[in-house]
Design goal:
Helix content: over 70%
Largest sheet: none
Order of helices and strands: HHHHHH
Distance between the termini: 40 Å
Radius of gyration: 14 Å
Number of helices: 6
Length: 109
């Protein structure tokens, strides 16, 4: 794919994005273990490359995934990590969306 080509040209800039896309792909195919591993790889890569905004997205999407497979406590933890990253990045406009997701989880417990 095109992203693999980008990643080969610049691992620093594209690796975490490729992992995140692969995680979403595995989620769609209901391959939970593979999806979880790719979400974790995306988060780790974003951390190593100091892309806090992409780390936030990976945590948020991982939280969404965990919510869909009913791992509520783990989902809340990932959303909390996403919140910290978004705050660090200064993305305050995103916070209401994230708070709404957290509220939906708490409403279903």
């Amino acid at each position: 794919t095109r992203f693999r080509l980008y990643e080969k040209c610049s691992t620093w800039n594209w690796e975490n994005n490729l992992f995140l896309l692969e995680a979403e792909y595995h989620q769609c195919k209901q391959e939970e273990d593979k999806a979880a591993a790719k979400y974790r790889a995306s988060i780790k890569s974003a951390q190593e490359h100091r892309f806090v905004h992409e780390e936030a997205l990976a945590f948020e999407f991982y939280g969404d995934f965990l919510r869909t497979i009913r791992r509520v406590d783990d989902s809340k933890e990932k959303y909390a990590n996403a919140r910290l990253c978004y705050e660090k990045w200064g993305a305050h406009a995103i916070m209401p969306r994230l708070e709404e997701k957290i509220g939906r989880i708490q409403g279903t417990e």
